[in-house]
Design goal:
The complex is a heterodimer of chains A (about 120) and B (about 575).
Chain A lengths: L1 H65 L1 H11 L11 E4 L13 E6 L5 E5 L1
Chain B lengths: L2 H29 L1 H12 E7 L5 E2 L5 E13 L7 H12 L3 H8 L6 E7 L1 H9 L5 E10 L7 H4 L1 E2 L5 E3 H5 L1 H4 L3 E8 L5 E2 L14 E4 L3 H18 L3 E8 L5 E7 L18 H4 L9 H10 L8 E3 L4 E4 L2 E4 L6 E3 H6 L3 H11 L1 H10 L28 H6 L8 H12 L3 E3 L4 E5 L5 E4 L4 E4 L3 H17 L13 E11 L4 E15 L6 E8 L7 H20 L24
The chains are: A alpha+beta (about 120), B alpha+beta (about 575).
């Protein structure tokens, strides 16, 4: 009877030991996993910073192309555009109340093209 | 020795050893744990400075005028550099430095030396690929001005350490400046960052953005025309300011020569000063409307009052006052239209020293305007007790008073604004990195200087000056312009007299005269050849004015423009 009881206790102790060991191993694995993930996270952070920097550099390049001096140069030299003289412009007053949605500035400029058709653009 | 004794003695040795170890552990972990913890932390923690971006500067429509992006800076740890000459040879072409210069830097006994700061990312990548021992990199913010020269003297310049050196960069440095905060990170033996409970983290906070009152399109229009005038007249310095006369907001402010904030040339340091707020000049005839406003406000003259202009030369206290055209009798309006110095000198006498001084002060002369740009000077306006016998007559036509361009335009905007002087504004608001408004600046009226009626009368006189007086070149088809020319002789300190060869030509005016929107000032310092304000500065005003009117969508106020409408033109709403 006593021997039987001792064996049962031994089993419990063994199970308890194995359970404790598993918990300990899980804890160690978890710590290792956290460290691995933190390495990956840092790697991703570095990549993000690098991409952000690239993005900013691209924005700076974009600004170089869209600055007013460059736009003016392209318009004048490449597109051969000229600043309209007074005789090229017709100022038409509009009824602001009726066209409030279209313009709060109150007038349009109508420009004639070479075929005599009228184009209007909001200025 | 019996077996039992051996076992006991062995056990005693083991127990003794364990006790010694326990004592040692107790000493390390309990008694001196602080010291060892410090040592461990020193190895595994790194204290770094986290820099955040300097705030962006915007124009009034939210377009970026100054931004920041990250670039790499190269430094060396000389003690780790083994082949100095070899490294210098490899780095020289990439860093655009001589081998000798790099070698000299690496020769130092210091533990750290900058090789080159803020280099292009591509170059940094090329150097990184070389895997040079002892050559390291650090990311730093670099200021970039997307519009290059545009408004450079208003925006200013940020230095190598991102400190504001001039312009808005300087005056709003505390708002724009990136916040630097120390961060503590745990690192492993290879220097890789570990996420631990004791690592300090923080959310990123950049400096605030500054939204200026500058309109980049108007600024561009003004700068293009100013540059043309500068080249054509070969002037020493050219200045232009465009101001919203109702609110006092500066829409454009430019000087030439100027600088490009993105250029690495040291030449730009010459032009950091903003002459529009820091240079004093004698306004000449552009000061006459100020005196006229005072005379009309005090009811000392009427428009029909006649002044004898002595045929062009008038000896006042033995010193001659000259007109550029010899006239006899002129009405008060004609005195202004023909810009007669003699007529104004005589009219000024009616005002008296104290009144003239008081009005000049009320218009903002001899005082800071309050524009938040660095280096502003109050100008020179002596107190009446310090005036000589001829001061009153001279001041009446703009001699003997030193003004800044910003003072002059503010005074004219006061006339355009019905007699209320507004504080010139250069900044509209501060915004946080998310775009949320932190602080909003409202237009600030300083004082009422003259009545609305006087301002209206003076506007009519100024319109006459442009229509049939000295300012004909400033006429803009379809718009009624009010303005005044100025041609001031420069004082020559060498001779102690006014120069006969060096002049300051200027034109100042506002339009549309009936409902003024903008005031424009053009100043050309020492133009060569033609030097009259009416012939060199007024055309610049007209060219800038017409473009601004079109850009702002302000319709012409003259019926002339609508006479010859083509039948094909599409009329929207009710045609005029």
């Amino acid at each position: 009877m006593r021997i039987e009881k001792k064996r049962r206790y031994k089993k419990y102790y063994l199970l308890l030991f194995i359970g404790g060991l598993l918990i300990f191993l899980f804890y160690v694995w978890e710590c290792a996993e956290v460290i691995t993930l933190s390495y990956r996270l840092n790697e991703l952070k570095r990549k993000l910073i690098s991409l952000e920097n690239k993005n900013r550099n691209l924005k700076a390049n974009l600004h170089n192309y869209t600055n007013l001096a460059n736009v003016n140069r392209i318009a004048r030299e490449e597109r051969k555009m000229v600043f309209p003289q007074n005789e090229n412009i017709c100022f038409l007053k509009i009824n602001v109340k009726e066209n409030r949605a279209s313009s709060d500035k109150g007038f349009f400029i109508a420009r004639e093209d070479s075929r005599g058709a009228s184009k209007k653009s909001h200025y | 020795m019996p077996r039992k004794s051996r076992i006991i003695s062995s056990m005693l040795i083991v127990i003794f050893t364990l006790i010694v170890l326990e004592i040692r552990l107790y000493y390390i972990q309990v008694v001196s744990h602080r010291r060892y913890r410090r040592m461990a932390d020193k190895q595994s923690f790194s204290i770094g400075q986290t820099d955040f971006k300097r705030g962006t500067i915007y124009d009034r429509n939210g377009k970026e005028l100054a931004i920041e992006f990250e670039v790499s800076s190269v430094y060396a740890i000389p003690s780790l550099v083994s082949h100095r000459r070899g490294i210098a040879k490899k780095l020289a072409p990439l860093l655009h430095m001589s081998e000798k210069a790099i070698d000299k830097k690496l020769e130092t006994s210091n533990s750290f030396v900058w090789l080159r700061r803020k280099i292009d990312t591509e170059i940094a990548e090329k150097i990184k690929d070389l895997h040079l021992k002892g050559i390291k990199f650090v990311n730093e913010g670099k200021r970039f001005y997307p519009e290059n020269e545009l408004a450079s003297q208003v925006i200013g310049l940020a230095g190598l350490d991102n400190q504001g050196l001039s312009g808005i960069e300087n005056s709003f440095d505390r708002i724009l400046r990136r916040k630097t905060k120390k961060t503590v990170r745990r690192k492993d033996g290879f220097g890789r960052e570990l996420i631990a409970a004791d690592t300090t983290y923080q959310s990123e906070v950049s400096g605030c953005g500054v939204v200026t009152t500058i309109d980049r399109v108007i600024q561009y229009i003004a700068e293009v025309e100013l540059r043309k005038a500068y080249d054509n007249t070969k002037a020493k310095l050219a200045t232009i300011i465009v101001q919203d006369c109702k609110t006092g907001e500066i829409l454009a402010l430019a000087n030439f020569p100027s600088f490009n904030g993105n250029s690495s040339s040291s030449e730009k340091c010459k032009y950091l000063k903003n002459p529009a707020v820091s240079s004093i000049f004698e306004p000449g005839s552009t000061f006459k409307p100020i005196v006229a406003a005072a005379l009309l406000e005090e009811n000392l003259v009427t428009l029909e009052d006649r002044f004898y202009c002595e045929g062009g030369v008038y000896l006042f206290n033995g010193i001659p006052i000259r007109d550029h055209e010899g006239e006899d009798w002129l009405t008060f309006v004609q005195v202004l239209e023909k810009s007669s110095n003699i007529g104004m000198a005589k009219a000024g006498q009616m005002l008296g020293k104290n009144k003239l001084y008081q009005y000049a002060r009320d218009f903002g002369f001899g005082n800071f305007t309050g524009i938040r740009l660095p280096g502003e000077t109050p100008g020179i306006l002596k107190k009446p007790k310090d005036w000589s016998e001829i001061s009153l007559s001279r001041l009446s036509f703009g001699q003997g008073v030193g003004v800044t361009a910003i003072q002059l335009i503010s005074a004219f905007s006061c006339l355009a604004n019905g007699g209320v002087l507004m504080e010139p504004m250069i900044v509209k608001r501060f915004v946080d990195p998310g775009g949320k408004v932190v602080k909003e600046f409202q237009p600030c009226p300083v004082r009422r200087v003259i009545s609305h009626k006087t301002a209206k009368t003076l506007t009519n006189i100024l319109c006459g000056i442009v229509k049939k007086g000295t300012g004909k070149e400033a006429r803009i088809m379809g718009y009624k312009v009010a303005g005044k020319t100025g041609t001031a002789q420069k004082f020559d300190p060498a001779t102690g007299k006014y120069s006969d060869t060096n002049y300051i030509a200027s034109f100042i005016g506002y339009l549309p005269a009936e409902q003024p929107k903008v005031t424009i000032l053009v100043v050309l310092d020492e133009p060569q050849g033609f030097y009259w304000g009416g012939s060199v500065a007024a055309p610049v005003f007209a060219r800038v004015g017409v473009k601004i009117m079109r850009y702002l969508g302000i319709p012409p106020d003259s019926q002339e423009m609508f006479k010859n409408l083509p039948p094909e033109a599409v009329c929207v709403g009710s045609p005029l």
